[in-house]
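2 proteins. here.
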Amino acid sequence: GKPYPNPFNPVATITYAVPLDCQIELSIYNLRGRLVKELISGYMEAGYYEIQWNAGTAASGIYFLRLKAPEKAITRKIILMK
C-alpha cells in the first residue's frame, strides 16, 4: 500500500495490490497503536485497488496504514498536516 499525497490534508488515496484471492484488512492506527479507522475488512479478489481515507476530524500527526493479508502484513507511515 502506498498512500498519496503524503503529507495529506484531509484526504489520502491509498493504492494497494492483493496478490491472490484472500481475506484482507486495511486499517489506520495512531502513534499509540489505537485503531482510528478500519477501511476494509473482508474477502477480496486478486488485483489492484484504490481507496480514499478522509481524515476529516482526525488530529494532525503521524498515522500508520496497516495492510494485513494471510501471508504478510505491511505498515506505512502517513502524515496528516492541517
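next one coming up
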Amino acid sequence: SLLNVRVDYNSENAVTGEKEEKNLQFTINLIPEVEAQYNGGYEQLISYLRGNSLDKILDRDHEQLPMTALTFTVDKMGKPSAVQVKKTSGDEFIDDLLIKLVESMPAWKPAKNYNGGVVEQNFELTVAASNGC
C-alpha cells in the first residue's frame, strides 16, 4: 500500500523574518513483513494461469497477446479482489477473461505484518504471449 504523508508547518523566512506557511509531502510504499504467496508457489500460479486461459486466448486467433497488466489485492482471507485492468490488451474478451481468471483463482496465503497479523497486499500481474506472466 502507499501511504501519503503531508506535514503542514510554519517557518520563519530567513530574509524577511516573517512567518510562512509551508508543507512537505511524500509517499511511503508499505511492504508487508511476509508477502502474500500463491499456494504452491510461483510455478503453480503460472500453471493455473496457463491452464485456465491459454486455450481460450488461442481460440481468439491471436498470434501474440500484447502486453496486458492487471492490478489486484490479496485480501486478509487470501482471496484476490479489486481486480482492474491497468493496461488493456486491446481486446475486451481477453481483458474480461483475465479479470475472471484472477477473481476465480484459489486463495493465497495472505500477507503478514511485523507482528504476524494478516494484511492486504496489492499486486500487478503482467501477461504477454511472448513471455507469459
